[in-house]
Specification:
The complex is a heterodimer. Chain A is mainly α. Chain A is built from 17 helices and no strands. The two termini of chain A are about 30 Å apart. Chain B is α/β, with parallel strands linked by helices. Chain B has two domains: about 180 residues, D-Maltodextrin-Binding Protein, domain 2 (3-Layer(aba) Sandwich); about 220 residues, D-Maltodextrin-Binding Protein, domain 2 (3-Layer(aba) Sandwich), CATH 3.40.190. Chain B starts with a helix and ends with a helix. The chains are: A mainly alpha, B alpha/beta. The interface between A and B is large, with 40 and 52 residues.
């Protein structure tokens, strides 16, 4: 058995023995970089000792002014807000509900589901990013499936037109016009005179009733409407696939967190609620949620911190492009620090903006938990 | 026995330490594409250099594309620039800092005049470098627009390579009918559109004087003439010559897609020739020498209606090696020896034969060039004039907007006037 500390001096000595190393480590690893970052963000420092020339000096808040006036900063901030929103209001509720379903054994094979849902959280985000990139790319899986369906519809209509015309023997203007009606308008833009040019192409192509499959295949290539995930190139909408993947990737982690904490709730409270006639939904809302409010708040803080740091997944999926529209603050900072013509003071100003933004969100989360939360189990 | 072993081990350590201490450590950040046919020969050559220079401890770090620029940027920020670095002659990516702050020695003062006289005057012109000194010795002169043609594919469809843009546009439906794209231009990385095609288009339609006038304030990016060039760029997508799907394709995807017949034409820099030739280590080639001779060719971008500079192509002094300005004594001597060897006849001939580039060294001969490497000088002969590569002639804050703007035009998400206005705003900010 360990002997208790005997006096105040001994207690104090033990306290400082443990605290001082950790305190210095904190200063070195956390406080020093933050202070340095603040200093650099208001300086004209732009590189290491090799640069020579004028010594760097404090120049004020120029970079912050530049930041505020840069539309790319606001776009990156907005994208970060989207990631925070999908994380806090997507991953946490979904993880909570899934954990509840498993905890209350409402679904079978709960452990199996836990494992399946947790798998994305243990795979490298770069691998996941590359995988989903292949799904959402203009020539990716999703586009292939959609284009396959469009092509089928087009071919059905085209066969009908050919059949009505009595085959390919006489290609008339009317035949071409019918073909144009079912075609992709963009494809016709490469013709100066669509009717005559398309007619020439068909006649000159030597298509006959004997090689109808070739005709059908060629017309499908040339004229079938195509589905392109163009919406992914529009500001705001371009974040949808990234938000979806973010949700898919980390919901399992919160499921595990909530499920582990649900195990600590006294079964008798739930049984009592059930005997009093509470439905599963009421049990979840009135018993489980208040008991886990502290855990939910902590999960929200983890979510916010993770969301503001998000980098690798988006880098693997889009590299912040096209046109910077999927850029988040971390990528915006990285590109200013290490890509192209580096601007280290600006990059430091961005990193401080990330810190301030995260403090703000965490403050809001803690306030909400204090105001409306129950007691932790 | 144990003591004896311990004493022997210590002696061995001391001897090894003394031997290492005699060596001059030379840190070298090199840029190489491991998928290029020249890569294995390149690495083998460096091994030969190491074997022949045992007094130099050559510590090479080899990176490619964005990771190279990011690492060099980080080294510069940390004040740990390697002794010898690979760089671009202008303000492209990480090279900008090397030039802006003159972090490298002027090689005209380092390398002997007798040695430098073997290089073309274009390579030795300090005005071709952002630092206005010979910070690197360009190993080649790079033509950033080269149209690679799958002539075999065209022949099989009864088609011919176009000489005008209108003819190229007319090929679109004829190729699309067989599921083939016309001109492949992967642009997810942002710079290829600007560097590999737009600069040539702009040079053809406006000439270098327009960019010179921008610098002196006599012209603006918002001038109708430049907006018209951006409009033509967008038209190429509307015409189907370029495909908006390619905006999402990575730069590295191009050669494979082109060789597999997904497009009849592929636009890239002349440096891409090296990706198609036979890899000496494996004996494999992306395009076999036989097919290089019969089914593939290089051509100038077709004539554009209303162009001022016919058959002009954007070009720039090529990449090269530079020496850290702080290198002195034995380190400087070692660096000079590395550069003298690197730019030497034997190594540059190897580079030429493996398709890495056509060297700027003028006294080379070879009888073992593969067909596509032979076609490169023939292609150069079709070039009437060179024009600026925009990222070599403008500030990064301006050309970065253009890079993103060209993507936006291709995707239909931006307008020519809007892109021009963004560029002019960045240009105005430079004056402040």
């Amino acid at each position: 058995m360990v002997a208790p500390l005997r006096n105040k001096v001994e207690t104090s000595r033990a306290y400082w023995t443990f605290v001082i190393p950790a305190f210095f480590l904190y200063l070195l690893v956390f406080a020093f970089p933050i202070v340095l970052s603040v200093i650099l963000s208001v300086s004209n420092y732009n590189g290491g000792k090799l640069f020579g020339g004028d010594a760097w000096t404090i120049v004020g808040f120029q970079q912050y002014e530049k930041l505020i006036n840069d539309p790319n900063f606001w776009m990156a901030l907005k994208n970060n807000v989207y990631i925070v929103l999908i994380s806090v209001f997507g991953q946490i509720p979904l993880g909570f509900v899934l954990a509840y379903l498993i905890y209350r054994k409402i679904v079978k094979w709960g452990e199996g589901w836990q494992a399946i849902l947790y798998v994305p959280a243990i795979i490298s985000v770069i691998v996941l990013g590359m995988m989903w990139k292949l799904v959402f790319a203009p020539n990716g899986v999703l586009a292939d499936v959609m284009n396959g369906m469009y092509a089928e519809t087009f071919l059905t209509s085209l066969k009908h037109i050919v059949q009505s015309a009595g085959g390919l023997t006489h290609v008339t203007d009317d035949f071409v016009k019918q073909l144009m009606n079912i075609s992709n308008a963009a494809s016709l833009q490469s013709f100066a005179h669509p009717v005559s040019d398309l007619k020439d192409l068909i006649v000159g192509g030597g298509y006959t009733d004997q090689n109808l499959p070739v005709f059908l295949s060629d017309m499908k290539n040339l004229l079938a409407p195509t589905w392109s995930p163009d919406f992914l190139n529009q500001q705001d909408v371009s974040m949808v696939p990234i938000m979806f993947v973010t949700l898919w990737c980390w919901t399992g982690m919160y499921l595990i967190l909530f499920h582990a904490n649900m195990q600590k709730i006294d079964d008798q409270i739930i049984e009592a609620a059930r005997i009093d006639g509470a439905s599963e939904l009421q049990v979840m809302w009135n018993v489980i949620v208040p008991n886990l409010s502290g855990v939910i708040a902590n999960a929200a803080i983890l979510c916010i911190a993770g969301s503001l740091n998000t980098f690798a997944l988006i880098w693997a999926m889009t590299e912040g492009g096209p046109m910077h529209i999927t850029q988040v603050l971390a990528i915006y900072m990285y590109q200013n620090a290490f890509v192209g013509h580096p601007n280290f003071p600006l990059a430091n100003a961005i990193s401080l903006a990330i810190v301030l933004f995260s403090f703000l969100l965490i403050g809001v989360t803690l306030y909400i938990e204090k105001k409306f939360g129950g007691k932790q189990a | 026995m144990k003591r004896l072993a311990l004493v022997l081990a210590m002696i061995a350590l001391i001897v090894a330490g003394a031997s290492a201490a005699d060596k001059t450590v030379l840190k070298f950040l090199y840029y190489a594409d491991a998928s290029a046919a020249s890569y294995s020969s390149d690495m083998a050559a460096f091994e030969k250099f190491k074997a022949a220079n045992t007094d130099i401890d050559l510590q090479m770090e080899i990176l490619n594309n964005a990771p190279y620029h990011q690492k060099l940027g980080a080294y510069i920020a940390a004040g740990q620039l390697p002794d010898v670095v690979f760089l671009w002659p202008t303000s492209r990516d990480s090279s900008a800092l090397l030039h802006d702050h003159k972090l490298l020695k002027d090689l005209k003062t380092v390398l002997p005049a007798d040695f430098l006289k073997n290089f073309s005057s274009l390579a030795l012109d300090p005005n071709n470098q952002s630092s206005h000194q010979l910070s690197s010795l360009p190993q080649t002169f790079t033509y950033t627009t080269t149209v690679y043609v799958n002539t075999g594919l065209l022949k099989s469809l009864g088609l011919k390579a176009p000489t005008t843009y209108a003819e190229m546009k007319a090929l679109v439906p004829k190729l699309k009918v067989k599921g083939i794209k016309t001109l492949l231009l992967p642009d997810a990385d942002g710079w290829p559109s600007q560097s590999c095609l737009f600069s040539t288009v702009s040079g053809r339609l406006l000439g270098d004087s327009f960019i010179d006038n921008i610098k002196t304030g006599k012209a603006k990016w918002t001038d109708k003439a430049f907006v018209d060039v951006l409009t033509f760029w967008q038209q190429m997508y509307t015409d189907g010559v370029l495909s908006k799907d390619d905006v999402s394709l990575g730069y590295g995807d191009g050669p494979g897609l082109f060789v597999s017949g997904k497009a009849a034409f592929f636009v890239d820099g002349d440096w891409r020739v090296g990706n198609y030739l036979t890899d000496k280590a494996t004996g494999k080639a992306l395009i076999s020498p036989a097919l290089q001779a019969t089914d593939f060719d290089l051509m100038n971008f077709p004539a554009i209606a209303g162009e001022l500079n016919k058959n002009s192509v954007s070009a720039i002094a090529g990449t090269g090696l530079g020496i850290n300005k702080d290198a002195t004594g034995a380190k400087l001597e070692a660096a000079k020896r590395l550069l003298t060897w690197y730019y030497g006849k034997e190594n540059q001939t190897m580079k030429w034969e493996t398709g890495a580039f056509v060297p700027s060294r003028t006294d080379l001969t070879s009888t073992t060039l593969e067909p596509l490497a032979v076609k490169l000088p023939a292609y150069y002969k079709t070039i009437a004039k060179t024009t600026y590569v925009i990222d070599g002639a403008t500030d990064p804050s301006v050309f970065n907007i253009l890079n993103a703007g060209l993507q936006g035009l291709g995707l239909g998400a931006k307008t020519p006037a809007g892109v021009a206005a963004e560029m002019q705003a960045a240009q105005n900010a430079l004056k402040k």
